Amino acid sequence: MSSKSANLHRARAAKNDEFYTQYADVKKECDNYLSHFFNKVIYCNCDTADSAFVKYFTELKAAGKIRDVWFSGGIGGDDFRCAASIERLKAADIVVTNPPFSLFREFIDLLVQYNKKFLIIGNKNIVANKKFFYLIYCNKLWLGFKPLGQDFLFDVPNPENLLYTRQKGYSYKIVNSTIKARVAATWFTNLEHTNHNFLNLSKSYKGNEHKYHKYDNCDAINIDKVSDIPFDYYGAMGVPITFVGKYNPKQFEILGRDKDFTIDGKGVSINGKNLYTRILIRKKLA
Length: 286
Prior knowledge:
Elements (H helix, E strand, L loop, with lengths): L2 H14 L6 H8 L3 H4 L3 E4 L7 H11 L5 E4 L11 H9 L2 E4 L6 H10 L3 E7 L6 H8 L4 E2 L8 E3 L6 H5 L6 E4 L2 E6 L1 E5 L31 E2 L14 E4 L11 E6 L11 E2 L2 E2 L3 E6 L3
Parallel strand pairs: 1-2, 1-3, 3-4, 10-11
Antiparallel strand pairs: 4-9, 5-9, 6-8, 7-8, 11-15, 12-15, 13-14
Helix pairs in contact: 2-4
C-alpha cells in the first residue's frame, strides 16, 4: 500500500470510528483502578485535549494522583502507529483510551508488542476472534468492571444521521432529547481488579441430564446461559461468550473456542442446528 493510500485508509477508518466516550463512563470505570494509576504517566494515544479521557486524567493530575497525562491521537492528531506515538507509548506507564474499532486488532498487537499495561474500550464481539481469544486464554487480558451485557452509549458527530440509517433501540438511544450511538462495546484490561468473584452455581447436572444436550460434533455439553452452569459437572462445557465477563481462573479452566475442538472444524451444533459461538470450559476441582 502506498503512503498516500495508507493515509487515506487511516482517515476513513478514523472518521467511521468517531465514537466519543462520555465522561461519566470513563470515570465510572477508571475510578476502580486508582491504585494502579497512582504516580504513573497515563497515555491516551487515541485522544485529543477535549476528550473525556484526557479531562478525567487532567483532574487526577491536578489532585496529585498521577504524575502526568499524555495524548496525541484523534482526528487531526498523530496516528497511534506513527514513530512519535510509539516513542511516547514506550515511555508511558499505562495506556487508557478508546481506539478506533476498525483498527482494534492492530492496536492490541502494539500494546502486546511493547508489553504495556492498559485499560481500553473495544467491540465485545472481538472475544470470538481466535488471536484475541488466545490472550484471554493465557490470562494476558480480561474484562473490566462494566458488565459485558451492557452496551455503551457514545456521542457522535451528526447524530441525526442515526435516525435515518439505524433502527431505534439497536444502534441509537435518545437520552434527555439527545441522540446517542448504542454500540456493543466493553472494557478490556490487563490491570488486576477485584471484580473476579466466584460464580454461585445452583443448578445440578445429576437428575437433569436431559436439559444439558451434547453437541453433534464435539464431546461437550451445551450451556445456553451462564446461570445454568451446573455445580456437579466436571467435563467439558460449551458456554456463551458472555462467560468471559464472569470468568474466574480459580474456579474454571478455559479450554478454547468451540471450533478448535469440533470434529469438522466448524461451530458446535445440536440436532443439526448450528449455535452461536461457544467457549469450552471445565470446572476446577474444589
